[in-house]
Amino acid sequence: MKSDDTMESDAGPSFARALRRASAKLCSSLCAPRSTLDAQRASGSALIVVLWVIGLLSMFVMAFAFDMHVEARITSSWRKKLKAEYLAKAGIELARMMLFETADPDINNPDISLYLAKGSDEKVRGAAISIARGGVAEVTRELGAGTVDVTVRPENARISLKDIIDVNDREKTYTMWEPLFESAGVSFEKRDALVDCLLDWVDQDEMTHLNGVESEYYESLDPPYQSKNAPLDTVDELALIKGFDEKLSESEVSIYQALSGFLTTYATDQNININAVDHNTMMGFLNIDAALADEIIAQRQGPDLKDGTDDDMPFKSRADLLGRVPALPPGVADRISFIAKGRFSILVRGKAGDIEHAVACVVQYDNKNMTILHWTEGDALQENLISH
Hints:
alpha/beta, Ribonucleotide Reductase Protein R1, domain 1, 5-stranded antiparallel beta sheet, two-stranded parallel sheet
C-alpha cells in the first residue's frame, strides 16, 4: 500500500499536466476568434477598395461614352448643316435655270404644249411659265437626303419705298403710307409721328417736323448715330428710325417687321405687278378691300386656284383686267403693271434632317445673265427679314 507521500508525489505531475492541458485549451479558445476577426476585417477592406475602383472605372467609362455621344451629335449636326448649305446654293442654281428658261421663244406661244414638250422637268418648266407671265414661281425638290424649296418673285410685286416718300409734301406722304399702316395694324395714334420721323430721316436738314426727330435724338442713343438726311438705300434702314422699332399693340412684331414685307428699294417703277402681288400688299398699295383682292387673285390663278400651274390665267393688259374684274375702283388700273421688269427676289431653303439653311437674294436678270444685287443667308432666315 502506497504512503501518503508517494501519493502526493504521483499527484504532482498529473496535476501539472492537467493544468497545462487546460491552459492550452484556454489559449486556443482565446486566440482562435482573434485570427478570424482580423481575416474578416482584411477581407472587408479589400472589398471596399474593389468597389471604389469599380465605381471610378464606371465613371470614366460613362464620361467617355457621353463625350463620344456628344461628339457624334456635333459631327452629325455639322454634316447636316453643310448639306443644308449646299442644298440652298443648289437652289440658287435651280432659280437661275428657271430664269434662263424664260428666254425660250415658245414659252409665250398660245400653244404652251410646244414648250412643255421640250423637256421632262415639268416643275422647272411650269415655274418658268409662271415667271414669264409675270407671276410667282415655287418649286420643291428632293436632292439626296434633303429637300430644297425655291421661290422666285418679281421685285415689282412689292411697293417701291422711294416712291412713297415726298420730302416736300408731308400730306402726300401720309396719304401714301396710311393704307400700309392700316394693313400692317399700326395704331392711328402712332402714324403722324412715324411719318414725321421718316421725313426727318431722309430730308437734308436738321429741322424737325412737329412729331419728328433729327440727329440730336439719335446721338443720345447707345450706340449713337446721326440722322441720314438722304434717301433710303434699303428697307432695313427703317429699323433705325424712331418709332419703327417699336412693337405693334399686343404683338412681339415691330412696326418695321410688319411693313418690310410690302416694300422694296429695287423696283424700277412706281407700278405694281398685279400678277405677282400678294393679298396684303394689294390692299395696302391699291387701297382695295379684302373681297376684291381675293377676286383678283382667284382670277389670275385659274380653275385650280393655285399659283404657278399650267391653268393660270394672268392678266395680260388693262383691258383684260377691267373685263374680268369690272368692280375695280377708278384709277387703280393706272398704278399696276402686268410683267416682271428684270429684277427678282429669290428665297431658297435647303433642309437636311432638322437643320435648315436659307439664302435670300435680289438679282438682275437680262439676256441670260444674272447679276446679284443683294445677298443674305443664315440658318433661320425668314422671308420678311430679306433686305430689299
